[in-house]
Amino acid sequence: MSFKLQSSFVPTGDQPEAIELLTQGLMAGEKAQVLLGVTGSGKTFTMANVIERVQKPTLVLTHNKTLTAQLYSEFLSFFPDNAVEYFVSYYDYYQPEAYMSVSDTYIEKDLSINEEVDKLRLRATSSLLSGRRDIIIVASVSCIYGMGNPEDYKSGIIRIERGQTISRNSFLYLLVESLYSRTEVKFDRATFRVRGDTVDINLPYVDYGYRITFFGDEIEDIIRIETESG
Fold first, then answer.
1. pTM for the predicted model, two decimal places
2. CATH number of the domain residue 38 falls in
């Protein structure tokens, strides 16, 4: 799928020239270009036009979470039919382990993880591994810290389809190997539950899951389910 910019605005003033020059520079392989403009001059809209013309996966890197959220919202409105993803640190609070020798005081590590942000990070990773090219990742500087080996993520992908021959137990083993946990009570993210020949999976990166129905050693049906209502 290609990038398609959706906006009621059209480039005006210096924007058409900036879009043309930036596009030419990217096509020519220039490693660095600078777009200068005062606040409110339409720099984000200008870059959205460049993305549409260049048609390449894009990383938008910012220096703090506040600006990241703002740009994510803007690019999401410009490209509603494309994969615009959000990637920032999932810590709401982080206190590293420390020792103060002066007072002989040990400070234990303490942290708080934002589950919603963690979900968005995983969704960004999922989009990158999906093979699609119409991706914009809006990220803070936390993206420079590795999430792990991409090959490890790829090896954890489970591909299934209706009519596929695989036993229910073999499928459950694959889920466990991909770090899903079995549950019988609380249907949280990254968990699955088993009811006879039916397996419900709550995906960790979206707000829905899948119900896999087996008939013997064959996948009979795959349907999307709302994880809140089941």
1. 0.80
2. 3.40.50.300
